[in-house]
Amino acid sequence: MVMSFRVSDLQMLLGFVGRSKSGLKHELVTRALQLVQFDCSPELFKKIKEIYETRYAKISEPGQPPQQQPLPPPPPPQHRPPSETLSIHSSYDRNSAVTRTGLSTTPNIDYPSLYGKYLNGLGRLPVKPMKPEVRLVKLPFYTLLDELLKPTELVPQNNEKLQESPCVFALTPRQVELIRNSRELQPGVRSVQVVLRICYTDTSCPQEDQYPPNIAVKVNHSYCSVPGYYPSNKPGVEPKRPCRPINLTHLMYLSSATNRITIIWGNYGKSYSVGLFLVRQTTSSELLQRLKTIGIKHPELC
After folding, report:
1. Quick check: do 2-58 and 142-289 share a fold?
2. Against a cut of 0.85, is the pTM above it?
3. φ, ψ for residue 166 (rounded to 5)?
4. Rounded to whole angstroms, what are the CA distances from 291 to 84, 115, 176, 191?
């Protein structure tokens, strides 16, 4: 009904609620539709009804009483995902055969319901697409308990080759309790751990752990040991290092105190992301027992 209004009708409606009346017709229509969508007051719909009836009363033949005119047909529906379309009022029945006539013959009409019919198929304002998140591959010897810091890109702060990226966080009482009550796998190493994982900033697929050059990790006031390089006996071949989660638990405050982690890394063009996770480390015997519980499958079925 609003979409059938002329410019003067739209300006009258917008002026009634104190909105700006300037602009082209499609701008006025958009402004009026948004007004109806977010302000479903009885006074507003009464004014729309009044403008509509006044308009069609003027175009009736002289000497004849005003006749009811059919409402204009709605715009053709557009195929959009359900999340992008306007919701329909619960009182609107798609299968009901409601005659599209003037509002004067339906004193008890549900205006929001009628509005839903004529906006069906019109999408909301475009939603800004969300940037894909970096995902890390699942590791068989670690069971994820909590995600303390989602994989976040390491952003260089200057043009220096050696960069420092700080991170501040605190454990919850539940997380502290999980760590304290976990069993020791070996002296000083508990099964529930806070681990740091680093990988390439690539959202196309789950990423494996990958360290940047010159990696060093400082937890509070102490440096954490990072796996070193494997020795290489081949000339001209760069030594490799095992990239795996870095256990930070033994250097952290197991209380409500704030922990500060500083990652020192080399900025040589590649982009890296870091994440903090609360995990439970699984021993090889536990993993073997879990595999036995699942059962043995034929290789062709795997």
Report:
1. no
2. no
3. -85, 155
4. 44, 58, 30, 19
Q: Residue 217: which of 272, 269, 257, 262 has the closest Cα?
A: 262
CATH architecture of 142-289: Sandwich (2.60)
Residues shown for the chain: 302
Q: How far is it, in rounded angstroms, from Cα 184 to Cα 187?
A: 7
259-266 vs 162-169, strand pairing mode: antiparallel
Superfamily for the 2-58 domain: SAP domain (1.10.720.30)
Domain boundaries, the chain: 2-58, 142-289
Amino acid at 53: E
> CA-to-CA distance for 68 and 50, rounded, in angstroms?
13
pLDDT tens across the length of the chain (302 residues): 777 778 888 888 777 777 777 777 777 777 777 677 656 677 777 888 888 788 766 655 455 554 545 555 555 545 444 433 333 333 334 444 343 333 333 444 444 433 333 333 344 444 555 678 899 999 888 999 999 999 999 999 888 999 999 999 899 999 999 999 998 888 888 899 999 999 999 999 999 999 999 999 999 999 999 988 777 777 766 678 889 999 999 999 998 889 999 999 999 989 999 999 999 988 888 888 877 887 766 667 65
